[in-house]
Amino acid sequence: xxxxxxxxxxxxxxxxxxxxxxxxxxxxxxxxxxxxxxxxxxxxxxxxxxxxxxxxxxxxxxxxxxxxxxxxxxxxxxxxxxxxxxxxxxxxxx
Length: 94
What we know:
- The protein is of the alpha+beta class and 94 residues long.
- The chain contains five helices and four strands; from the N terminus they run H-E-H-E-H-E-H-E-H.
- It has a two-stranded antiparallel ribbon. It has a two-stranded antiparallel ribbon with strand order 3-4.
């Protein structure tokens, strides 16, 4: 019996649309910086900011409590669900 060699398929390819640099609005730039960066990096920097400033709700980790900078990005809302956050942030990307 001959052994079959498994052909390794390449992993997932990153979606080019996510890797294309986007420019944050002035309000979002206060949190993630003003230079154009990919959407994936915007999300990473946003989460780093949230963790650094302790803005994640202690009881319900899905909720983000906005400080003054994030309140401007979240359209004036003081608390936002983490899934709604990406929708609100996308309005601030060009």
